[in-house]
Amino acid sequence: MKKQRGFSLIELLIVVAIILIIAAIAVPNLLKSKMAANEASAAAADRTVGTAEVTYSSTYNTGFSQTLGALGPPAAGVSATSTAADLLDSVLSGSSVSAAALTSTKSGYKFTYIPGATTPAATYTITGTPVATGSTGQSTFCLDQTNVVRKDPTGATTAGAATGCPTAMNPM
After folding, report:
1. Strand partners, 144
2. DSSP string spanning 12-60?
3. Which pTM was predicted?
4. For residue range 145-168, what is the model confidence (pLDDT) as tens digits?
5. CB neighbours of residue 9 within 10 Å
6. 53, 73, 67, 71: which is closest to 100 by C-alpha?
7. Which of 44, 66, 46 is nearest to 56 (CA)?
8. What is the DSSP letter of 69?
């Protein structure tokens, strides 16, 4: 009688069990890596808005913008103006949704823009909060006219006021 070649059922079950153990170890680390990437993206987005606001203010000499959409791209074939300054992409500026956008969502974070109460705006606040705390991110990020990114590692802080970020948030 010839001996058959191949793997036995026990050997295949052992290999499958080892693969499942490795996957069980790897998946939580991948989720943590994704959250860390989303948080880094949120902090960078706040910095980008701050840079865009400084550029907007010095270019148009009208204070800070009244909406995130004003920092977004203009319609195709149209030059940049104070209502569409082309300083942010359409996702972050929310201009893909509305030119009067005060909120946008990017990389698992919701960004809320609050302009100053005066016209022209002398202050602004941009706050990035996780869409799903503990899943898309843990920390809340805030930036105001001082251009200092602040972080609340608990994610508890919500959108700041037009006068600035909450002082309880840690500067980064």
Report:
1. 125
2. HHHHHHHHHHHHHHHHHHHHHHHHHHHHHHHHHHHHHHHHHHHHHHHHH
3. 0.82
4. 999 999 988 877 666 565 678 777
5. 7
6. 67
7. 66
8. G
Q: What distance in Å separates the CA atoms of residue 99 and residue 7, rounded to the nearest whole number?
A: 63
For 131, phi then psi, to 5°, come to -65, -40
Residue 49: name the closest of 100, 96, 94, 98 by CA.
94
The first and second tokens of residue 172, run together, are: 């980064």
pLDDT digit string (tens) for 11-53? 999 999 999 999 999 998 999 999 999 999 999 999 999 999 9
Helix or strand run (H / E) with residue 11: helix 9-60
Could you tell me how far CA 114 lies from the centroid of its own chain? 16
In the chain, the amino acid numbered 56 is Y
Identify whether the C-beta of residue 67 lies closer than 8 Å to the C-beta of residue 115.
yes
Residue 22, amino acid: I
* Contact by Cβ (8 Å): 148, 130: no
Q: From the CB of residue 86, how many other CB atoms can be counted at a distance below 10 Å? A: 17
Assigned token pair, 24: 């069980």
Specify the DSSP element, H or E, that contains 146.
none
